[in-house]
Amino acid sequence: MSRGSEPTLIASVQRALRLLEVVGEHPGGVTAKSLARSTGLALPTTYHLLRTLVHEGYLAKLDDGAFIVGGQVTGLHDAALVQQVRGRIRGLMVELREDLRAAIYLARYHDGEVQVDEIVDSPRAPRVDAWVDFREAAHATAVGKCLLSGLSEDERADHFHRYPPENLTPRTITGLRELVERPEQSLVTDTEEYSLGTACLAARVLGPGSPVTLAISFPARRLATTGQYVLPLRSAAGEISRVLALAGGRAAWT
């Protein structure tokens, strides 16, 4: 397609989408004849498109002959809401990466495991080399510690029973009592406990369901400036908390 030229559009797709829009404007359903009048389509064309949309599940035909929105549209609507939430969260993570020049992580504790759902990095701010699976290294990462801090002591004890703490660097904390009885923390630091030369900072994200955290990783040589990271990180975590609260249960990760 040459620059400035009009895109090639498929008329049948446009017509089908217009039918979906008009059906959606009539909660009680609408007949094929009414749809033809509303859209300006020929009645045979309208019937043909309606049969296709019903077959694919985007419309449903009632016993009285009226058409209503089908289950496929509901699924697309739910998916769109989740994607909008995820897009908004990723946008906040990108802003934080540019602000702090650090790799950004969004993680949650799901079904008894540490799960990193999103990483936003760049050549200037590369992600940490995950040389040990984060699920096995929760004791040594700010991400894991922050997530585990949101659990009960019994739940933390269960986690470490399944994943006994091991020394990953000379700085790794492996004492079970300290790890299990750790007081609840909304901000957690990892100073070269997971990887020498790398430090991490994690803040709690408030949301429905399991614990969620927003974290950053950066070279340990920048530890002296850690104080400059705290406010932006907390602010971004708070904004993500608001996004999740407004989305409610529709923001669940899949």
Name given to the CATH architecture of the largest domain = 2-Layer Sandwich
Query: In CATH's first tier, which class of the largest domain applies?
Result: Alpha Beta
- Report the count of strand segments: 7
Amount of beta strand: 15-25%
Oligomer: single chain
Radius of gyration: 25 Å
Which fold name corresponds to the CATH topology of the largest domain? Beta-Lactamase
Fourth-tier CATH superfamily name of the largest domain: GAF domain
- Element-level helix/strand string: HHHEEHEEHHHEEEH
Notes on the structure:
- May be an activator protein for the gylABX operon.
- One of its GO terms (biological process) is negative regulation of DNA-templated transcription.
- Pfam families: HTH_IclR, IclR_C.
- Keywords: DNA-binding, Glycerol metabolism, Transcription, Transcription regulation.
- This is Glycerol operon regulatory protein.
- The chain has two domains: 11-69, Winged helix-like DNA-binding domain superfamily/Winged helix DNA-binding domain (Arc Repressor Mutant, subunit A, Orthogonal Bundle), CATH 1.10.10.10; 78-251, 2-Layer Sandwich (Beta-Lactamase).
- Helix 1 crosses helix 3, helix 2 packs across helix 3 and helix 4 runs antiparallel to helix 8 (227-247).
- The protein is built from eight helices and seven strands; from the N terminus they run αααββαββαααβββα.
- It starts with 10 loop residues before the first helix and ends in a 7-residue tail after the last helix.
- A five-stranded antiparallel sheet has the order 4-3-7-6-5. Strands 1-2 form a two-stranded antiparallel ribbon.
- With 254 residues, the chain is an alpha+beta fold.
- It has helices at 11-24, 32-39, 43-55, 71-100, 142-149, 153-162, 176-180, 227-247, and strands at 59-61, 67-69, 103-110, 113-120, 187-191, 198-205, 212-219.
- The model has no long low-confidence stretch (mean pLDDT 91).
- The chain is elongated.
- Helices cover 43% and strands 17% of the residues.
- The longest helix has 30 residues, at 71-100.
- Strand 6 (198-205) and strand 7 (212-219) form a beta hairpin.
